[in-house]
Amino acid sequence: MNIRRTAVISVWAALVTTASWAAEPIPTVNLVGRPVPQLDSLPEGPYRALVLQGHELSTRTFAVIGPEVKDLRKRYAGNNLACTSCHQAEASKPFAIPWVGVTATFPQYRGREDQISTVEERINGCMERSMNGKPLPLDAPEMKAFTTYIAFLSRGVPVGAQIEGAAVLPSVVPNRRADPDAGSIVYAAKCAACHGADGMGQRTGQRGDAQGYTFPPLWGPDSFNNGAGMNRLLTITRFIRQNMPLGASHTAAVLNDDEAYDVAAFALSKPRPVKANLEADFPARWNKPIDAAFPPYMLGASADQYRYGPFPPLAEKQREMADRRKAEMAAIRARSSAEPASAAKDK
């Protein structure tokens, strides 16, 4: 049996093991309406102190590990955003990429790395992409504080639970190329009042004072880089649809599907920091998201289509690729099952 086949079978065996475990009843936790653990409920002591430190890191990232803090050794973030610029309501709002339950879902397989990742590795993924910075050392006090705050928010969520309200709510996007020009009109009407006509946000203080933004920039040098999840059109469209303008929710949207799609394309058409070596993302290739607008492009479509759509044709091609992969895996399993029988017969 060759090495490649052995590797494929090993992966399949791992999947079968996971599937066997997953056959057990999976608890479901709905974050909508679920009480969020309160900081004031914690008694004085080292645990409370660490949770509070994690809370400050999340809500005032710019002031603690941002690029303008006085201690040069603490400048891990490369922009003046806060984690809660995206993870709204102190990282607890359903369908706004909440951290509630994250501790119960990691370690988990991540397609971007094609391996099992820990919570710490996921945090550093955000540090390098959304925060356009550098990874925290795994033994850094800030890393311990982040993971402790995430664990605090995840209290009561059983390991392996199916969490409703995590990430962003899946939705159908228009079957057309997004229109940044139409999006510019939506932006001027619904977004510029907070994020600025130039998209540079509204500073809380002055440049250099490490006080961040009242409303964050959506593009430009102090925004997320092109390797961040928010740089994917489908992801940011759904986030905007369910959470923007400020006060919107998954049950009280302000923008319709077309407006969210076009204004997202407008924002992503603007310049932002560039992350090196994006071609190394999603090394398995077959599971590279259809809105990951960087090479290699696996489905025979143009770079423009990966960036702006239409996406349904790409989704269909990706399903066909997945079906071919399943057939190949089934053929490998069939051959592997036949080999022992053939060997026994030869004896």
Estimate what percentage of residues fall within beta strands.
under 5%
Biggest beta sheet attributes: 2 strands, parallel
Query: Could you estimate the helical fraction of the residues in percent?
Result: 40-55%
List the strand order in the largest sheet.
1-4
Helices, by number, come to 13
Unreliable stretches: 1-22
Q: Which shape, going by the Cα principal axes?
A: globular
Q: How many strand units?
A: 6
Order of helices and strands: HEHHHHEEHHEHHEEHHHH
Mean pLDDT: 91
Radius of gyration: 22 Å
Structural class: mainly alpha
Quaternary structure classification: single chain
Distance between the termini: 18 Å
Describe this structure in words.
With 347 residues, this protein is mostly helical. Helix content is 43%, strand content 5%. The strands form 3 sheets. The protein has a two-stranded parallel sheet with strand order 1-4. Strands 2-3 form a two-stranded antiparallel ribbon. Strand 2 and strand 3 form a beta hairpin. Helix 1 crosses helix 13. The longest helix is centred in the C-terminal third of the chain and has 35 residues. It is globular and about 80 Å long. The N terminus is likely disordered.
What would a concise description of this structure say?
With 347 residues, the protein is mainly alpha-helical. The model is unreliable at 1-22 (pLDDT under 50). 43% of the residues lie in helices and 5% in strands.
